[in-house]
């Protein structure tokens, strides 16, 4: 199995997601974050499951993405690892995180 790396920016992404959901429902916020971490494990086990991000943005990139509910998990597959790069709302302009 490949190693899993998580970019430090992901902690901020998840905190913002949790805080937004917690405004209405703290239990749902915790459940959502747990499920996102579960998706990280799925990506670690099956790194080819995502689509090429280049098909969704107007520039060339070797990142992949997987969609779960309202969230897009952006990641990169290396020789021995999978790096979770960011987790963003699917309605957000993804290109802004690469600026």
What does this entry show, briefly?
This protein is α+β, with helices and mostly antiparallel strands and 99 residues long. It has helices spanning 8-22, 26-45; strands spanning 3-6, 51-52, 64-68, 71-77, 81-89. A hairpin with a 2-residue loop joins strand 3 and strand 4 (71-77).
SSE blueprint and pairings:
Elements: E1 3-6, H1 8-22, H2 26-45, E2 51-52, E3 64-68, E4 71-77, E5 81-89
Parallel strand pairs: 1-5
Antiparallel strand pairs: 2-3, 3-4, 4-5
Helix pairs in contact: 1-2
Written account of the structure:
The chain is α+β, with helices and mostly antiparallel strands and 99 residues long. It has a single domain (3-98), classed as YaeB-like fold, CATH 3.30.2310. Helix content is 35%, strand content 27%. The chain is built from 2 helices and 5 strands. The protein has helices spanning 8-22, 26-45; strands at 3-6, 51-52, 64-68, 71-77, 81-89. It has a 5-stranded mixed sheet. A hairpin with a 2-residue loop joins strand 3 and strand 4 (71-77). Helix 1 (8-22) packs antiparallel against helix 2 (26-45). The N and C termini lie far apart (32 Å). The mean pLDDT is 92.
How many helices?
2
Over all CA atoms, what is the radius of gyration? 13 Å
User: Which strands sit side by side, in order, in the main sheet?
Assistant: 1-5-4-3-2
The chain-level structural class is alpha+beta
The mean pLDDT is 92
Our estimate of the beta-strand percent is 25-35%
CATH homologous superfamily classification: RelE-like
First-to-last CA distance: 32 Å
CATH topology group: YaeB-like fold
Question: Any idea how many domains?
Answer: 1
Output the CATH class name: Alpha Beta
Strand tally is 5
**Major beta sheet, specifics?**
5 strands, mixed
Are there runs of 5+ residues with pLDDT below 50, and where? none
Family: Belongs to the RelE toxin family.
InterPro entries: RelE/ParE_toxin (IPR007712), RelE/ParE_toxin_dom_sf (IPR035093), TA_system_RelE-like_toxin (IPR051803)
Keywords: Toxin-antitoxin system
Organism: Thomasclavelia cocleata
């Amino acid at each position: 199995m490949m190693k899993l790396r998580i970019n430090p920016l992901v902690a901020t992404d998840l905190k913002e997601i949790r805080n937004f959901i917690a405004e209405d429902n703290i239990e749902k916020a915790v459940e959502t974050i747990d499920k996102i971490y579960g998706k990280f494990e799925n990506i670690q086990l099956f790194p080819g499951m995502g689509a090429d991000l280049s098909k969704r943005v107007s520039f060339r990139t070797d990142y992949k993405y997987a969609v779960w509910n309202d969230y897009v998990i952006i990641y990169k597959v290396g020789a021995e690892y999978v790096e979770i790069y960011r987790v963003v709302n699917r309605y957000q302009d993804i290109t802004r995180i690469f600026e």
